[in-house]
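Table S5 (text form). Sequence records supplied for joint modeling of the four-component complex.
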Amino acid sequence: MNEPRRDLGEMFARITQRLVQAERPILERHGLSMWEYVVLSRLAAGTAPTQRTLAQDVGHDPTRLIGVIDALETAGLLTRHPDPSDRRARVVEITEQGRRRHAAVQGEIHAMEDALLDDLAPADRATLDRLLRQLGADRR
Amino acid sequence: MNEPRRDLGEMFARITQRLVQAERPILERHGLSMWEYVVLSRLAAGTAPTQRTLAQDVGHDPTRLIGVIDALETAGLLTRHPDPSDRRARVVEITEQGRRRHAAVQGEIHAMEDALLDDLAPADRATLDRLLRQLGADRR
DNA sequence: GAAGATGATCTACATAGGCATATGATTTGT
DNA sequence: ACAAATCATATGCCTATGTAGATCATCTTC
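The corresponding structure-token record, covering 280 residues in total, follows.
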């Protein structure tokens, strides 16, 4: 009684969509778009040396990212300064306020995730996390 | 030395994007769009009683789905017939040709997935499949 | 049988994304 | 010093997607 094989892509897409939809109201409550949150997440992990790098890291068009950065800068959640050693580049850094905002949002998102994973055995949860990191790791 | 927690959504989105990108050339080679493939997949599992149901099942706008169904019908991969018991509804059914096309594409996609999961232990692979099914299952 | 709901379809509109090109400032290679 | 490459930015184009409204046919309810 083998279950028929199902496409990985289909399963991943379904779960991703579910997660994104669950994040939407949280982000909206904090006045952040998805891209803005993604950028803050990336910056919380470390300052970006150029906007191009930032765009690559978050997987977004560098051109389109400009508006996102503009909005976050206006909101005081990040700063953009020319790199002294290469004045073409702009170093993008999260502010204290940005860090607080990100932590608040991420806290709620993690709580949502916990609720979603509620009926998974603890061992399964750990395995899932390990496998996702492994599959999402950069190309070897 | 705990790794910092990472957002589930981020990890799922990254892997999903990777899978979709790997599927793109396969689908293109067989002359199918992503939505067309998704529809065929759904129909391969069973006939859809109405186009609305079909749209819900695949998570697509019923309005937009019409064009997809049109194309698949023109290509002879599915048939669309009025339901005798409710002549408003159109029963959508995959054809033999559609089934063959779907099987061919899915075969290549599964091979691609196998390659991607190559460095996972067999036990891990089974666990991943089980967890994805569990998380993707309809709301309890 | 009339009124309202439902299914398929079409059209239009707004937003978002990917992609290409252009420009000005600056750095790097020769 | 000069040419080519790089970074940030602005703009435009094309496609995909989400949504709403309108129409026609057909059911369902009362």
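Note: Helices of chain A lie at 8-29, 34-44, 51-58, 62-74, 96-116, 122-136.
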